[in-house]
Amino acid sequence: FDPRHYLGTHCHGFPKTGPHRLRFLLESVKDLRETLKKKGSTLVVRKGKPEDVVRDLITQLGSVSTVVFHEEVRETL
Q1: Which three-class secondary structure state does DSSP give residue 15?
Q2: What does the pLDDT look like over 40-77, one tens digit per residue?
Q3: pLDDT for position 67
Q4: Phi/psi at 62 (nearest 5 deg)?
Q5: Domain boundaries, the chain
Q6: Where is the Photolyase/cryptochrome alpha/beta domain (predicted)?
């Protein structure tokens, strides 16, 4: 979770992530983790700037050959 997505960001005068959306996101991540566990996998969840968190995870894991990510589409007004 990138803290920059939850601090003072607004879109069309509304908070980008209000309490209801945050609860939905947290419940969705929890459900995904539980589903993956049932299939013998896991989900790594971290809080921080992705550029820092991913670098730290790669360092911790040591043998990472591929990293895949997506970038959020931003509206230009």
Answers
A1: strand
A2: 999 989 999 989 999 999 999 888 888 887 777 776 66
A3: 84
A4: 80, -40
A5: 3-61
A6: 1-77
Does domain 3-61 correspond to CATH entry 3.40.50.620?
Answer: yes
Q: With residue 10 as reference, give the H or E element that holds it.
A: strand 10-11
Distances (CA, A) of 77 to 10, 65, 67: 13, 38, 32
Q: How far are the Cα atoms of 37, 51, 60, 61, 62 from residue 55, in angstroms, in the given order?
A: 25, 6, 9, 10, 11
Residue 21: φ, ψ to 5°: -65, -40
Q: For the CA atoms of 32, 34, 35, 37, what is the dihedral angle to 10 degrees?
A: 120
Rounded Cα–Cα distance for residues 71 and 77 (Å): 18
Q: What is the pTM of this model?
A: 0.67
Residue type, 71: E
Confidence of residue 30 (pLDDT cuts 50, 70, 90): very high
